[in-house]
Design goal:
alpha/beta, nine-stranded mixed β-sheet, disordered N terminus, two-stranded antiparallel sheet
Length: 368
């Protein structure tokens, strides 16, 4: 992979006070100008504050933003039931706001049917992030895809968190097809993120460690409710710096749910809340054109004999139907790890090998 000597140039940005995420600076690539960023913001989404130009009060707009709804598309993605839970929102007000968003959306062509050719043209904005391993990138047809959720699962020590750490760096490296690089948000549910792990990976890709760390926004989630609440802060950050963030990592998606909901009697509630979280992640990935990367744990199917136990990801059908691409990881011989495409709408079911090195995820050395 070819490296640029100066992958980023920094411009100072004032962020709103936020106790959830650490502060960072806004990044632009050396090929980006301020005008480019403003144009990208205009194309990316319609701000929810536009509603004020159509008779919606400032207070109502603030209620939408407080609920993590920052764009017109975000309102369209939200159900009437959820809008009715907002302060001072009634049927008449929700109908008015929905009608306004429908008209604005039609102007922006977001509510019209598209031909498959038009959709194909729209998907040109989709980018892919390299994992650091050519082998892994190959079975993913380029890497971790934006506007999609990629889930990796496997037992302990198969490389799930190591891939996440590597992506924190590779997401900041300019790549193919004009990909400019960008910031990362990392939601840590198991206290496994280590800033010091980023140093050797940054060295491998010839990036300045301080700059790399400044552009990883970190949040520790302590329970499943907190994990969901953080997603509203994620939406706000993506909205404040449009086009700057490229990757959202949740490591791991299910660990807190397994602690908060115990036993068969709580399974229904757990899956309902998990469904809400996955729906939110899907909307974030599409609304802001970012890649969402999830790590997941496994469980053992006790219906099989002790000699032939089946290992499968936790989360049930909710997680299975919500993730776009699922990768199964397992240990191989020596220090090898094996990744297999477990489920995907467009990828062939195949597997490959990779290794965990001091510099992150990489390919096994070929034997001459």
């Amino acid at each position: 992979m070819e490296m640029l000597e100066k992958p980023f140039c920094e411009t100072t940005s004032i962020n709103k006070t936020d106790n959830t995420f650490t502060k960072g600076t806004t990044l632009t690539t050396s090929s980006h100008t301020e005008g480019d960023i403003e144009e990208e913001e205009e194309v990316a989404f319609l701000d929810v504050e536009m509603l004020q130009e159509h008779g919606v009060t400032c207070e109502d707009v603030k209620q939408l933003q407080k609920a993590g709804i920052n764009t017109i598309k975000g309102v369209q993605m939200c159900t009437r039931r959820k809008l009715l839970t907002l302060k001072d929102f009634n049927d008449a007000k929700v109908t008015k706001i929905k009608d306004i968003c429908l008209k604005l959306g039609q102007v922006n062509s977001s509510n019209c049917f598209l031909t498959a050719l038009e959709l194909s043209d729209q998907r040109r904005m989709v980018f892919k992030l390299t994992t650091g391993s050519h082998n892994l990138d190959n079975i993913l047809e380029g890497g971790i895809e934006s506007m999609a959720i990629t889930e990796v699962f496997g037992e302990s020590r198969t490389g799930k968190t190591q891939i996440a750490h590597t992506l924190c760096v590779t997401a900041q490296v300019p790549g193919k097809d004009g990909y400019p690089g960008g910031k990362v948000i990392y939601i840590d549910t198991q206290h496994t993120f280590r800033p010091e792990r980023i140093k050797p990976i940054s060295d491998r890709f010839q990036l300045d460690l301080t700059a790399v760390l400044e552009n990883i926004l970190y949040a520790r989630a302590y329970n499943s409710e907190h994990q969901y609440e953080l997603l509203n802060s994620v939406s706000q950050k993506f909205h404040e710096e449009p086009g700057i963030f490229k990757l959202l990592i949740v490591d791991s998606i299910m660990s807190l749910f397994r602690v908060d909901f115990v036993g068969a009697s709580e399974m229904s509630e757990r899956q309902m809340k998990l469904g809400l979280m996955m729906s939110k992640l899907q909307k974030i990935s599409e609304e802001y054109n970012v890649a969402v990367f999830l790590t997941n744990q496994i469980t053992t199917d006790l219906n099989f004999s002790l000699n032939d136990l089946e290992v499968k990801p936790v989360g049930g059908n909710i997680l299975a139907h919500s993730s776009t691409t699922r990768l199964a990881l397992k240990k191989g011989k020596a220090n090898l790890r094996i990744a297999r495409v477990y489920d995907s709408p467009n990828l062939e079911e195949c597997e490959t090998e990779f290794v965990i090195t001091n510099g992150g995820i990489s390919d096994p050395k070929s034997e001459d």
